[in-house]
Write a structure and sequence with these properties.
The protein has 523 residues and is an all-alpha fold. The protein is 77% helix and 1% strand. The chain has helices at residues 2-36, 39-60, 63-71, 77-104, 106-114, 120-133, 137-145, 149-173, 178-200, 210-220, 223-244, 247-260, 264-281, 287-320, 332-348, 350-354, 361-383, 385-410, 417-434, 443-464, 470-484, 519-522; strands spanning 499-501, 504-506. Helix 5 packs across helix 6 (120-133) and helix 6 packs parallel to helix 9.
């Protein structure tokens, strides 16, 4: 079990490094962007992103998740190529028609969202770009399944870095505004698609299987209502804020939400590593114990990150944006809390995938979407942007509660409820402790001081509450010793590179290129 967890953490670190590096550059460039883009421009960008979110669902048909699940059932490389080719040609045929419809209706959509047809070109380019990107999941998921995390993150980082450079040139150098943002994405996608042909080539053959396509749609179609409801949860706040307020309010809200969504750096990296991990473990006799242990660790990290982010948000926004954007800090903690509930949903819903009960996803997301719409209608007219942020938190909390309950009923996992309760209490107290930090200090000092207070309080409370097992304490002490003796000679290591975790010794030989249970190793 511990070797499995170690592999998950390794892949999580690799996936996370690429996201952190790219997003850190984006964050550092935010003071530059806010000099060239107004709050109204950010409002337009936020609405375009909602169109992209809906288009992704329409172009996927739920077969992206079906592809990964069915890949594990393929007996050989020929079967995997048949699966990939079948889904690829289906998407080419069906989504080509949807692309034409979307481009044709871009003027109508612009008039409905912005009051005129001036943004029709932006919408058409956004839809076309989403159509092309909709095929990338095929090679990317194969890289994830085979634990080629370094190749995966190199591709993701390369595309993100190229997009950043292109946006700098077009938005700042050529001063193209929002059009520069969209054109940069299209240009980079065109170049990246040529690069990706190397990874498509081993997968795509001139074959098509109606039986496989029926299976893929049978698995994936029930997730479409789920995905639509999920996007309602994710974008309803922008639509209602645009309806009840102005594009400027939407833009300020999107800036505050961007900082709250920074927590997704960890969550997205975890998701990349998590899905192939739990699918690879699901047939092992101690699978539920592994899921329980990992869930505790993930929740512990999520709560700590939320406490820190909520504490430093005002100073972080003061440091990185112009004065007209500083009011956005009010919504950041609530958005971060919503992302934490997304993490709980992600960790706690795996039973529905393992047991193939995906038809229950729409029920959970439908309830959460209804909660989102209701909360937005009630709260936004009265509280504006803050009401939109509260609606996000309410919606994702509902989604987590309902989905975890449905998943647990079909695949009960013995969660460590006592430890989870101590995590929640420690996180709340850690955030409250930061309110004692003096106000009015510089943003850099404020970020450092609030971050230290939150993390130190959190760790101390968990220690005092007896959260850590003896083996975990030994690991933490070993890390402390390594840090404090970093300048001295390295400590001798056993030949087997043994590591103590959770009270036991495990042998960790040099890392294999794939896991023991991956399809590549079984071959």
């Amino acid at each position: 079990m511990l070797a499995r967890i170690k592999g998950l953490v390794r892949n999580l670190a690799i996936y996370g490094l690429g996201d952190v590096a790219t997003s850190l550059v984006s964050l550092l460039l935010l003071p530059v962007y806010t000099r060239y883009l107004s709050p109204e421009d950010y409002g337009v960008i936020a609405m375009l992103l909602t169109i992209e979110a809906v288009a992704k669902i329409c172009f996927r048909w739920g077969v992206d998740t079906a592809f990964m699940r069915m890949y594990y059932d393929c007996a050989d490389q020929s079967g995997r190529q048949r699966l990939a080719s079948t889904i690829f040609f289906f998407l080419v045929a069906v989504n080509g028609s949807l692309l034409g419809l979307g481009v044709w209706g871009s003027g109508w959509l612009s008039a409905r969202l912005f009051g005129d047809g001036d943004q029709a070109l932006l919408i058409a380019l956004m839809i076309a770009n989403t159509f092309v990107v909709g095929f990338y999941f095929i090679p990317f998921q194969v890289l994830r399944i085979n634990e080629k995390s370094r190749a995966f993150i190199a591709l993701v980082f390369g595309r993100s870095a190229g997009t950043l450079v292109a946006r700098l040139v077009l938005v700042i150098g050529l001063q193209m505004g929002v059009l520069g943002i969209v054109v940069a994405d299209v240009l980079v996608t065109g170049i990246f698609t040529l690069v990706m042909t190397r990874w498509f080539a081993p997968l795509i053959r001139p074959v098509f299987s109606k039986a496989l396509m029926r299976q893929a749609l049978g698995f994936g179609l029930p997730r479409i209502p789920h995905s639509i409801a999920h996007q309602v949860i994710g974008v309803a706040d922008r639509y209602f804020l645009n309806a009840f307020a102005t594009l400027r309010d939407v833009g300020l809200y999107s800036i505050g939400a961007t900082f709250g969504l920074a927590l997704k750096l960890f969550l997205s990296a975890f998701e990349y590593a998590w899905t192939p991990f739990f699918l690879g473990v699901m047939k092992e006799p101690d699978a539920k114990q592994i899921y329980s242990k990992v869930s505790t660790y993930v929740v512990a990290v999520l709560v700590l990150l939320v406490a820190i982010l909520c504490a430093i948000a005002p100073d972080l926004i003061r440091l990185t944006t112009e004065a007209e954007f500083h009011a956005a800090a009010a919504v950041t903690p609530w958005i971060a809390l919503g992302v934490m509930f997304q993490g709980l949903y992600l960790v706690g819903s795996i039973g529905l995938i393992i047991t193939r009960r995906t038809s229950r996803y729409p029920l959970a997301t439908g309830i959460a979407a209804a909660a989102s719409v209701t909360a937005n209608v009630i709260l936004i007219p009265r509280f504006g942007s803050l009401g939109a942020a509260w609606s996000q938190t309410i919606a994702y909390a509902t989604l987590a509660a309902v989905t975890v309950t449905l998943s647990w009923r079909v695949y009960p996992i013995p969660y460590e409820w006592g430890r989870l309760a101590r995590i929640a209490a420690a996180g709340a107290v850690a955030f409250l402790a930061t309110t004692l930090v003096p106000a009015g200090i510089g943003p850099v000092v404020g970020i450092l001081l609030n971050g230290i207070v939150a993390s130190a309080t959190y760790g101390a409370l968990l220690f005092v509450a007896g959260f850590f097992h003896s083996g975990e304490l030994r690991v933490l002490n070993e890390v402390r010793l390594r840090v404090t003796t970093r300048t001295g000679p390295p400590a001798p290591q056993p030949e087997t590179n043994q590591v103590e975790m959770a009270g036991g010794l495990i042998d960790t030989p040099p890392e294999p290129p794939v896991s023991v249970d991956s399809p590549a190793r079984r071959r």
